[in-house]
Amino acid sequence: MQDFTRRSLLQGGTALAAAGALTGPALFDFAKAWAQTSPWKAESGAKLTVMRWKRFVPAEDDAFNAMVAAFKAATGTEMNVFSESFEDVQPKASVAANTGSGLDLAWGLHTLPQLFPTKVLKLNDVADYLGKKYGGWTDAAQRTCMLGNDWLGIPVATIGGYMTYRKSATDKAGFKEFPKDFPSFLEMCKAMKANNTPAGFALGHASGDANAWLHWILWGHNAWTVDKDDKVIINSPETMKALEYCKTLSETFVPGTASWNDSSNNKAYLAGELFCTANGISIYVAAKDDASKKELAEDTYHGLWPVGPIGKPTELQLAVPILAFNFTKYPNAAKAFIAFMLEKENYDKWLTGARGYLTHTLNAYDAAPVWTADPKNAVFAQASKRALPASGIGKVGEKPATAIADFIVVDMFANYCTGSKDAKTAMAEAERQLKRIYR
Q1: pLDDT of residue 15
Q2: What is the pLDDT of residues 268-321, one digit of tens each?
Q3: Which of residues 115 and 370 earns the better pLDDT score?
Q4: What pLDDT is recorded for position 17?
Q5: What's the start-to-end Cα distance of the chain, in Å?
Q6: Ramachandran class of 23: left when φ > 0, alpha when ψ lies in -120 to 50, beta otherwise
Q7: At what angle do helices 408-417 and 423-437 cross, to 10 degrees?
Q8: DSSP 3-state assignment of 53?
């Protein structure tokens, strides 16, 4: 657990400045002025305990910590912030919800606020304030956090994942531009394999990577786990077409993808063994930061997910919403902190610190400096706009989150692509598992 002060922040100003964060007196002056005019006045003696997911880009953490320190100095709110792995955020938030203690704010994944609809502080006023000031919310972000007319949380950001590829390899395969549809994408991957510069996508239990690209394949064929009323509809002709397409595509992959986790494609790409995959911007950032990989970084580009037969984007991007529990003793301070995070003076610098790893959910930040700082960052600016919620066309909540955590879609595709089950058996097994969740 860390406690940040104005003094410690100023002592660390050099690192924060390198991250592009607003530092020193300017940051604190802004925070002080903001606190005086904010719709939410922190309670006297307020203390907030905040749990967040562990950062992946150090400069993002620096920029976030700068916000925390400035908020504390401007409002007098004691801020206790600690980080947990993605896998541990939901269980620890559940403990707090069940016991009514331990946390004031929890910042996690997918549809976390939907898991505790009766335990969260309604944030309609915060959502309205930010939405009106910053051009409104993206559709997927709004659906992630709303239940009826109530905002159960605030969709702070999206961790975007897109196609990462070696342009020399795709050019040689005959594709000067990255494919825009499923048939062209398959033909490119076939040509890349023939040139010994293969693509590769995780078919193992990779929580982020495998779920992302296999839901994209499923949804792109207009196939879904459940319909709008949460009726299980996975066993369908559309799913069969998705399975057949995926099997043909998987035959072009670099060997070993059936056992890949979330770090496997990063390692293979940076080692020069992989030439096209789906990932956040972290592969490119790692290459840029390594002087020995200058040529690799220069050859690395990003592309949007091709669109399937459905005719529109069907992307599963990783939402990171924040919630405040309704048992907090300091609801005004909690609301004030959430709003403060997304104010332009903070948020622009935070996105810059994240280096494209995080994408905005408020439309005004389409013009954030990070998206023009490097042309190769620009694709990631679209992640929240092109995304569907984790539920697809179904209802947002605990059930689709459980289905993703249990790798039901991933295992269905992997079982067929690896030959361990035929298509009908793989679909029937997924159907049985989904019906247990949606009963």
Answers
A1: 37
A2: 999 999 999 999 999 999 999 999 999 999 999 999 999 999 999 999 998 899
A3: 370
A4: 39
A5: 40
A6: beta
A7: 170
A8: strand
CA dihedral 425, 427, 433, 438 (to 10 degrees): -150
Phi, psi angle pair for 81, to nearest 5°: -115, 130
Residues 105/338, Cβ–Cβ less than 8 Å = yes
Output the DSSP codes for 291-311.
Answer: GGGHHHHHHEEEEPPPB-TTS
Report the alpha-carbon distance of residue 279 to residue 380 in Å, rounded. 10
CATH number of 6-160+317-387: 3.40.190.10
What percent of the chain lies above the pLDDT cut of 70?
A: 95
| Integer angstrom CA distances of residue 230 from 144, 234, 389 | 16, 11, 14
* Reported pTM: 0.86
The helix/strand count (H/E) of the chain reads as: 21, 13
- Cα separation, 129 vs 382, whole angstroms: 23
Q: What percent of the chain has pLDDT over 90?
A: 81
Which CATH number, 3.40.50.150, 3.10.450.50, 3.20.20.70, 3.40.190.10, labels domain 162-315+406-437? 3.40.190.10
- Mean pLDDT, the chain, whole residue set: 92
